[in-house]
Amino acid sequence: MGGVTEADVAAVIGRIDEIIIQEVVRTQASPAELRQAVQLARDSVDIAASDALSPRMQRLVDLVAVALPDRAKSRHGTPLAVDLPRFWPLPVPKRLNG
Fold first, then answer.
1. Are 48 and 74 in contact (CB under 8 A)?
2. Distance CA 98, CA 95 (A)
3. Residue 97: inside a domain, yes or no?
4. Contact, 56 vs 27, CB < 8 A?
């Protein structure tokens, strides 16, 4: 049995961004894994439980969490916008000659 198709993703999640659909398909997850990821994304998965997931399931939960309109949060339960400032702004490298 192969991974999910774009039609499978649309049927389970609904109308979402095409890039997210393609990324979900790229994971080669089964339809059962996709349904589980949707359930985990809708629930508040605590950090200990999410760390116990396989890398593929962690990726699926992250993708689905971004796609769900009622839950734009990372797998750690924090809004994605809060996760970004740790890395932004990026430091500007010093010039070598000057």
1. no
2. 6
3. no
4. yes
